[in-house]
């Protein structure tokens, strides 16, 4: 079988499958979502570890159980006799009876100077991933996307100094009341840029020239799933445009699973790893069910008596 994507979800799935004595190829293009981050947090026993180190350890583990690691980009999946054909960009195609896709998502960032340059350093997105590291510091939240007010309210748990920059959004009276009650300051006006000095965030500058000093700013990027392999195969999507999966990651196409951020925009690293494990177990059960059904057919065929030969017909005497 083929696992596409060697992040936490894909490697976790590959580990379960190889330990179940399955032949597994893991294809990965080497573009992890968390590459800009220096450390990962909230992953039990690996808190503070560099993301690249976690992936390297995972690759070594699955290779140790016999997985074949392929450093390439999978660019197409198509039905094939007894399974699927997974084509590699500029290379051959692999055949597999089952496919698990864990190709993640990409973060579409606000188009403001300073955001991309500081992304993963002091421009952040997840309070549970990064809030502890910037606790008690002056924090900002960039508005303009749904959920910004809720994020500002949430961040008040980590710092007494939180400012919501409305930017292109209009803060309603109800939202402002909630922010005031929580002790979150609101700054109206369009943001021009995030200013920096010596490679560090200095503050948030508005179009009218005002600048508010901040040491970290949280933004809400638009998540874009890397699901072209799945949609190209005909996997159904939900009303929001994301690939529809069941609790184990099973898609609408028999034999295809999707796990991690490609199917769940909210999945954190540890969540994705757990989803990969659950999907691998479900996938393996599905494979065993198929093999058992085939074995039953062979057994029944072997037990079926061969038809008796037809009696010889004697030619009439001449």
UniProtKB/TrEMBL annotation:
The keyword Lipid biosynthesis does not apply. InterPro entries: FAD/NAD-bd_sf, FAD/NAD-binding_dom, Ferredoxin-NADP_redctase_2. Residues 2-274 form the FAD/NAD(P)-binding domain. SUPFAM superfamilies: FAD/NAD(P)-binding domain. Transmembrane segments: none annotated. Gene3D superfamilies: FAD/NAD(P)-binding domain (3.50.50.60). One of its GO terms (molecular function) is thioredoxin-disulfide reductase (NADPH) activity. Keywords: Flavoprotein, Oxidoreductase. It catalyses: [thioredoxin]-dithiol + NADP(+) = [thioredoxin]-disulfide + NADPH + H(+). The keyword Oxidoreductase applies. Pfam families: Pyr_redox_2. PANTHER family: THIOREDOXIN REDUCTASE 1-RELATED-RELATED. This is Thioredoxin reductase. The lineage of its organism: Bacteria, Bacillati, Actinomycetota, Actinomycetes, Kitasatosporales.
């Amino acid at each position: 079988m083929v696992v596409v994507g060697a992040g936490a979800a894909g490697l976790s799935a590959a580990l379960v499958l190889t330990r179940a004595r399955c032949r597994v190829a893991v294809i990965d293009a080497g573009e992890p979502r968390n590459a800009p981050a220096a450390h990962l947090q909230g992953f039990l026993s690996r808190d503070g570890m560099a993301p690249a180190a976690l992936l390297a350890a995972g690759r070594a583990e699955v290779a140790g159980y016999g997985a074949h690691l392929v450093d390439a980009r999978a660019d197409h999946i198509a039905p094939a006799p007894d399974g699927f054909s997974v084509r590699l960009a500029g290379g051959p195609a692999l055949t597999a009876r089952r496919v698990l896709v864990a190709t993640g998502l990409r973060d579409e960032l606000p188009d403001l100077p300073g955001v991309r340059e500081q992304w993963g350093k002091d421009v952040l997105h997840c309070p549970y991933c990064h809030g502890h590291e910037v606790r008690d510091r002056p924090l900002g939240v960039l508005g303009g996307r749904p959920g910004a007010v809720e994020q500002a309210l949430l961040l008040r748990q980590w710092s007494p100094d939180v400012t919501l920059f409305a930017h292109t959004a209009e803060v309603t009276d109800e939202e402002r009341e909630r922010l005031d009650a929580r002790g979150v300051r609101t700054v109206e006006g369009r943001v021009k840029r995030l200013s920096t000095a010596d490679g560090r965030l200095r503050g948030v500058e508005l179009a009218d020239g005002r600048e508010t000093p901040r040491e970290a700013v949280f933004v809400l990027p638009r998540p874009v799933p890397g699901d072209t392999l799945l949609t190209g195969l005909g996997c159904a999507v939900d009303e929001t445009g994301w690939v529809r999966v069941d609790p184990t990651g099973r898609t609408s196409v028999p034999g295809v699973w999707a796990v991690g951020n490609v199917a769940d925009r909210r999945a954190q690293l540890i969540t994705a790893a757990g989803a990969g494990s659950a999907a691998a177990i479900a996938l393996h059960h599905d494979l065993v069910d198929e093999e058992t059904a085939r074995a039953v057919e062979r057994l029944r065929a072997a037990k079926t008596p061969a038809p008796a030969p037809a009696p010889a017909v004697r030619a009439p005497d001449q």
